[in-house]
């Protein structure tokens, strides 16, 4: 009988700790049911993020995501609620063929300075499957009840 604590859809992802991230935790799940792995700041000095300011914060590792998957960088809910700190391009997408350092594009939507410290858990990373498509140009699209009605067309 399978262990209910072990997900059946585990994949392995090779991660390389970079020189400036030697003492920084690699991504990890805080609980057994967590969807996202916490990722930490691999900065050499405290970084102050002023209201409205955004910065790419290095995380001290690179990885080899298998084809057919992506990594999504998402905000940590506690930082967003308590301080207005979020990910500017949420979710940020990391493609399977990228081999550079992982960074989080942080933005301060709060009204006060926020200090990021070395090793602080700044974001979460979710691994997701990707479906690619083959675009096919056509002259007309099928007709639907909604049609071309867009933003706000189904209510506020």
How would you characterize the overall build of this protein?
This protein is mainly β and 156 residues long. The protein has one domain: Deoxyuridine 5'-Triphosphate Nucleotidohydrolase, Chain A (Distorted Sandwich). The protein is 4% helix and 35% strand. It has one helix at residues 77-83; strands spanning 14-17, 37-40, 47-49, 54-64, 69-74, 85-87, 92-94, 101-108, 114-116, 121-129. The longest helix is centred in the middle third of the chain and has 7 residues, at 77-83. The radius of gyration is 19 Å and the shape is globular. It starts with 13 loop residues before the first strand and ends in a 27-residue tail after the last strand. The mean pLDDT is 94.
Total domains, how many? Answer: 1
Query: Main beta sheet: strand number and arrangement?
Result: 4 strands, antiparallel
Q: What is the quaternary state of this protein? A: single chain
Taking strands numbered 1, 2, ... along the chain, how are they ordered across the largest sheet?
A: 1-4-8-6
Low-confidence stretches: none
| Helix share, percent | under 10%
Share of residues in strands? 25-35%
- Measured distance between first and last alpha carbons: 48 Å
Sheet/helix structural class: mainly beta
Instruction: Specify the overall morphology.
Output: globular
Question: What is the tally of beta strands?
Answer: 10
Name of the top-level CATH class: Mainly Beta
Order of secondary-structure elements: EEEEEHEEEEE
Q: Tell me the name of the CATH homologous superfamily.
A: Deoxyuridine triphosphatase (dUTPase)
The CATH topology comes to Deoxyuridine 5'-Triphosphate Nucleotidohydrolase, Chain A
Total of DSSP H or I helical runs spanning 4+ residues: 1
């Amino acid at each position: 009988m399978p262990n209910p604590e072990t997900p059946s859809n585990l994949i392995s992802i090779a991660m390389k700790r970079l020189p400036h991230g030697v003492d920084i935790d690699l991504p990890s799940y805080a609980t057994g049911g967590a969807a996202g792995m916490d990722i930490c700041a691999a900065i050499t000095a405290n970084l102050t993020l002023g209201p409205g300011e955004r910065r790419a914060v290095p995380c001290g590792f690179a990885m080899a995501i298998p084809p057919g998957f992506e990594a999504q960088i998402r905000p940590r809910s506690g930082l967003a609620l308590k301080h207005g700190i979020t990910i500017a391009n949420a979710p940020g997408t990391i493609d399977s063929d990228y081999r550079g350092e992982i960074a989080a594009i942080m933005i301060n939507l709060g009204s006060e300075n926020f200090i990021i410290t070395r090793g602080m858990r700044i974001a979460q990373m979710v691994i997701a499957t990707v479906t690619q498509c083959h675009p096919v140009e056509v002259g007309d699209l099928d007709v639907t009840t909604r049609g071309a009605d867009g933003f706000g067309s189904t209510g506020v």
